[in-house]
Amino acid sequence: MKISSTESGKAALSGATRPAEKILPKERPSTRGLAERAAEVQLTLLERGILAAQEALSKVPDVRQDIVDELKAKIESGQYQVSGEEIADMMVRRWAADRIR
């Protein structure tokens, strides 16, 4: 079904949907057992790739403790020195990168 710009404009004016509001399920479905469910149904190549990526990401820790420990040791020993200019530069870079997304 194709919706014309007039019809979409009417829907926007009616206030039926607001872009700022997000409708999320109260409980998200479990991603455990994705491989088992994939075996039960026929999936496209893209869907299989998504499942593989989700499973790989589930095995990656949220915090890379080795990097955290290394930085913590450098800070405590006084070997980690960062200037205010470097911090400001990285803040501007991060802001610019976030705007691109």
The class by helix and strand makeup works out as mainly alpha
Our estimate of the beta-strand percent is under 5%
Cα-atom radius of gyration: 23 Å
Based on CA inertia axes, which overall geometry fits?
elongated
Oligomeric description of these chains: single chain
Q: Helix tally?
A: 5
Tell me, rounded to a whole number, the average pLDDT: 77
H-E order: HHHHH
Helix share, percent: 55-70%
Low-confidence stretches: 15-20
Account of the protein in words:
With 101 residues, this protein is mainly alpha-helical. Among the domains are: 30 residues; 38 residues, no CATH class. Helix content is 60%, strand content 0%. The chain contains 5 helices and no strands. It is elongated. About 6% of the residues have low confidence.
Concise synopsis of the structure shown:
Residues 15-20 have low confidence and may be disordered. Helices cover 60% and strands 0% of the residues. Among the domains are: 31-60; 64-101, no CATH class.
